[in-house]
Amino acid sequence: MSRLRHLAPSGLAARFSLLLIVALVGVNAIAAFLLAREGSGFDQAVRIQRDMGRLVALVTALEEVDSATGETILAQSNTGYTRFFVAPDPVSPAGVPSLPGIEQEVRIALPGHAVHAFDGGHDASVSDQPMLLLLSVQLGAGVHAGHWLNSLLYPLPPTRAWPRKIPFFIPLAASLLGTLVVGLIFTRRMTAPLQELSRAAWAAGNGDRSARVTETGARELREAAAAFNDMQQRIANFDAERMRLVAAIGHDLRTPITGLRIRAEMLENEDIREPFIRTLDDMAVIAEDLLQYGRGGQDGEAPVATDLVALLGQLCHDRGAASETRGRIALRLRPVAISRALGNLIDNAVRYGATAVVRVRQSGQQVAVVIEDDGPGIAPHLLEHVFEPFFRGEDSRNLDTGGAGLGLAIARQIISEHGGSITLSNRATGGLRAEVRLPDCQTRTNGTNSRSNA
């Protein structure tokens, strides 16, 4: 059972399609089985349609030739599964139902002739073998006028019966194929809004508040799309309001902090002045973090072709980190924003480790920027929480640093806006490893080598 469940398609459209195919094929297979049974009315109809021309020709010939020639024609007309003979009376086995439909069909082909048709069976008085059909046609002219041409039709073996039946299954197969095509197209169109909703939900989960769904399809799907779009708009409005509030707080704090720092520098007592200034510097960092986080992706900077290697080299030089990069990698980036994100990561590495190393590599359709330090690392259960706004992992890093716990949140936000991702992991040899992945569909590289160590 588990194996069958594993083989079943996972998509809703695929499951609908499989259900439709199984149902239609099953129904048509049952219909074909019922039609194709030996001894059924379907076999009788097949034999009559196949042998109608020979029957008409035989009746016409017997009405025009002499007795001896008629006997010769009858003998040559018999086959292993059809026997003809002329008798004064029609074949009419007792207790066997007649076949009015076949009688009418023969009368149309032989107008003016009396016709009797009976279902087959096993009548020892007529034949020692089971029969498919008994047919009698009264001759109206010639030496046999008034006599009956009797025809005994025996069932064909499957190897010979099926080729005769194939033309009758062509309309059935065409109907099945047409129904399947229409059903699959309908299923695809019906589930397309669900696929769009799924893609939009993933985008929304990754922070894209602009993702919307077309309100189309069945009523339930339109209602789900409308609810999703309304939810996205409400979240976007909430985020925008929150960002404006945080940015306003950060902006408004900078002025009094600057004023307090100027006054603190005028204090003559060094024991009071230096701690005071350090505290104000920490507050200034917090205010700047709040301002940057509040701005988010709303600074209006347009993406431009940027040499990622050169940008990292400059960031490492300014911060005293080692840059080990190769070649020139050009991506369409927002240089100020990406510098802020990568700069925050390098700042963390420099702050918490004695050494910080930055490397770049290309992998498939992505460019990976790896930043490593030899600091104390982060407790495994906090690796994901440190990206949350205002969360500080000082218990893991254990350094007296300023900031509001927004550096990593800002970095993840900017990198996500570039279509990338960021992950943190502890190194086996000690320290933290931050890996940033950016899409490189527009990458251009050459073979130059760049290495700098500030």
Short recap of the structure:
The chain has helices at residues 2-7, 12-36, 41-62, 67-77, 100-109, 158-205, 219-265, 270-295, 308-319, 335-352, 394-397, 407-417, and strands at 82-87, 115-121, 131-138, 148-153, 304-307, 322-326, 330-333, 356-363, 366-373, 421-426, 432-439, 449-453. It is α+β, with helices and mostly antiparallel strands and 454 residues long.
Strand and helix layout:
Layout: H1 2-7, H2 12-36, H3 41-62, H4 67-77, E1 82-87, H5 100-109, E2 115-121, E3 131-138, E4 148-153, H6 158-205, H7 219-265, H8 270-295, E5 304-307, H9 308-319, E6 322-326, E7 330-333, H10 335-352, E8 356-363, E9 366-373, H11 394-397, H12 407-417, E10 421-426, E11 432-439, E12 449-453
Parallel strand pairs: 6-8
Antiparallel strand pairs: 1-4, 2-3, 3-4, 5-7, 6-12, 8-9, 9-11, 10-11
